[in-house]
Amino acid sequence: MTVGIVGAGQLGRMLALAGYPLGLDFLCLDPVREAPAGQVAPLLSGAFTDRRLLTQLARRCEVVTFDWENVSVESLATMRRAHGARICPPVAALATGQDRVAEKRLFGKLGVPTTRWRAVDSRRQLMRALTDIGLPGVLKTRRLGYDGKGQAVIGSPADAERAFAALGAVPLIYEERVPFDCEVSIIGARSTSGETVIYPLCGNVHAQGILRLTRAPYGPAAWQRRAATYLERLLEHFDYAGILTIEFFVRRGRLIANEIAPRVHNSGHWTIEGAATSQFENHLRAILGLPLGSTRALGHAAMINLIGSVPPREQLLKVPGLHLHDYGKEARPGRKVGHVTLVEPSAARRDARALDLIEKLAAGVGIP
Fold this sequence. Notes:
The protein is an alpha+beta fold and 368 residues long. The protein has three domains: 2-87, Rossmann fold (3-Layer(aba) Sandwich), CATH 3.40.50.20; 116-176, 2-Layer Sandwich (Dna Ligase, domain 1), CATH 3.30.1490; 182-363, 2-Layer Sandwich (D-amino Acid Aminotransferase, Chain A, domain 1). The protein has helices spanning 10-19, 51-60, 73-83, 91-97, 100-109, 123-133, 157-167, 221-238, 271-274, 279-287, 313-316, 347-363; strands at residues 2-6, 25-30, 43-45, 63-66, 117-120, 137-141, 151-154, 172-176, 182-190, 196-198, 202-207, 210-216, 242-251, 254-261, 300-307, 323-326, 336-344. Strands 9, 10, 11, 12, 13, 14, 15, 16 and 17 form a nine-stranded antiparallel β-sheet that branches. The protein has a four-stranded parallel β-sheet with strand order 3-2-1-4, with helices on both faces. Helix 1 packs across helix 10 (279-287) and helix 6 (123-133) packs across helix 7. The radius of gyration is 20 Å and the shape is globular.
């Protein structure tokens, strides 16, 4: 059985590595010949909108999925109409995840708390949004923003003018800036049969818009229950199949939804070593209609993203209990090139070891 993956980044790579023990084969499509998943699976090299390659993908694969949310909705819809391709997660979920206004409207419809916001298509609408929502706020592109790209913090009308000019003549959204206490995410899988499993809540730390650290399980049981309830509403709404993530801000114990990710998620990388079944394996089980695996945590996990470059592996592998994942990417400032995971018997030991490792990585000293 062959699974098609539109996109061949590190998420596609980890999907393939999770699927081979299940007896699955993979075929990826990506414009970059050296893409990480292409190093471990066959790769069709070309644009995500290349109809000839999309036709090949549809004909050669039993199901088609994707490893990031900015692939062409129109191209996937064409694959489905013209070739009867089965696409999971649903194209409707992908379309919603690509449009921050559609996302906010869906949160409102399903009773999921979110920030106050206004759609912005002109300077006049932006100034009105500043009056309605107030300052500070965040101005974002409605589409094609990830890892902190396509957004600006607004502290004054002058900031708003500069950001409006910098972001270009594209549809925007202005959101209240939440003075949050922490950031969390909830990840769950729903299969084609409707079976649903939810992972322990993740606590996330970002810098410059990029995820640096995830710890799981995280937070009180009440947060877990509330986040799982919101996630289940979205899974049911879309008649979803695959992994879905909601990212939240937490303010005084209240969960405030920020965005969804209709795919396997960076904050779920800890599940490879830290859960009974990884998010990658459960994504594949879900889209193929196989029984879902347990999401039970095997301890207290910390995942640290390696940004820019991977330190010498002989240094990292000296750290007891450390698991290294090198994505096979060329080093570049601000680029996610790998991650490491630690799993400990207590949250206190996990947090202490993660902090120590982060400090050593930042200092560039020999590890341990």
